[in-house]
Design brief:
single chain; NADH Oxidase; 3 domains; two-stranded antiparallel ribbon; 12 helices; 7 strands; binds flavin mononucleotide; Nitroreductase; FMN
Length: about 325
């Protein structure tokens, strides 16, 4: 009798709602304190993180197949101004060196396309001379070829994994959907918490649905029309207890990376696209795409084919030594 009562209380929706509410309130304090959205003016680390997103946006722009000549000048001016402020406030010089190097690539890229970049260059040089910044060979774009990539798709992992890039410059040859199915089959082996396999996938290939999905996601402007398929990875909340609300994103994230590699293995061009939106937007996406209420969107993958010659953003990576602590 006591056990029955205990399990009835445990599973009672009102009790669970209270427990979730209690957890979320607790969580909201550290989220408010540590979230990148707060105190950017005081916290240099947060400011750097925000700047990195804006610098990467310029790099992404360079990797879009049909980018406008001289794009992003206003953004570049604002970034340079903020980099100067960052240095004045004691920000990491190495970060500024890397940022300036990406900006230099951005200037060269636009100049090569025939844009007048004199003003941006002048600002950039002023920053470099005032703070003794030596430009490095960091960031920008790589020009790749389908021939080169295809010959390495079945290489050992250490080579294969280094050749997957987010593509924003897709080809027009039709996507072979059998390759998508083959990749999905490989991903059946993805590990998950307690082997729950709670990912739910929505694969869109009809033009109208593909276009609608990318428009709602909003992060593929300039190349959304080149993609032929959209794969939305969601997590099924019914598989998780109230205390494991982040696990759908962990399981879904692991699945997503596996799928990116699997698609690459079959010669399919991809790009991961964020589903981290404000609640209002997520709600709209769920409604418009008729997603079940018990699913949470984890990641969208844009899918297409490779061009014979295409470009990708370099997206400079830190050495693992910068974020790995061994026995500390
Ligand atoms: C969770 C996630 C969300 C992303 N969202 C977007 C996006 O909305 N738009 C975009 O152009 N790229 C997006 N990207 C691609 C990243 O910019 C890219 O993965 C990163 O710069 C590393 O480059 P790489 O994928 O070529 O190695 C996203 C990547 C991840 C992992």
């Amino acid at each position: 009798m006591k056990e029955k009562l205990k399990s009835a209380i445990k599973g009672n929706p009102f009790i669970v709602w209270l427990r979730i509410l209690f957890d979320k309130i607790g969580e909201s304090f550290s989220l408010t304190l540590y979230s990148g959205s707060t105190n950017q003016t005081k916290d240099i680390f947060k400011k750097q993180a925000e700047l990195q997103i804006r610098i990467h946006a310029l790099e992404k722009g360079m990797s879009i197949g049909t980018v406008k000549v001289g794009f992003g000048k206003e953004k570049a001016f604002a970034i340079i101004k903020d980099l100067v402020n960052l240095l004045k406030r004691g920000g990491a010089k190495q970060f500024v060196v890397e940022s300036v190097s990406v900006l230099q690539k951005y200037v060269e890229f636009n100049k090569n396309m025939g844009a007048d970049m004199t003003e941006v260059e002048r600002y950039l040089h002023k920053l470099c001379s005032c703070y003794d910044i030596q430009i490095m060979d960091v960031g920008g774009i790589y020009n790749l070829s389908l021939k080169e990539i295809s010959s390495k798709l079945k290489s050992p992992f250490d080579e294969f994994s280094q050749l997957r890039f987010s593509v924003r410059d897709f080809g027009t040859s039709p996507l072979n959907i059998e390759h998508v199915y083959a990749a999905l089959r490989l991903c059946e082996r993805t590990p998950s918490a307690c082997n729950r396999q709670s990912w739910r996938l929505h694969v869109y290939t009809e033009n109208k649905l593909v276009a609608k999905m990318f428009k709602l996601q909003g992060g593929s402007k300039g190349f959304n029309e080149q993609m032929q398929c959209a794969i939305l990875i969601c997590g099924d909340l019914r598989n998780y207890g109230f205390y494991e609300q982040n696990l759908p994103f962990v399981d879904g994230g692991i699945y997503a990376m596996n799928l990116l590699y699997a698609l690459h293995y079959y010669g399919v061009a991809t790009i991961p696209l964020t589903m981290g939106h404000k609640r209002r937007i997520t709600k709209k996406i769920k409604q418009e795409m008729h997603l079940p209420n018990h699913e949470v969107p984890v990641l969208l993958i844009g899918v297409g084919t490779f061009k014979d010659n295409y470009k990708v953003a370099v997206s400079h990576r830190y050495s693992y030594c910068e974020y790995v602590k061994l026995n500390q």
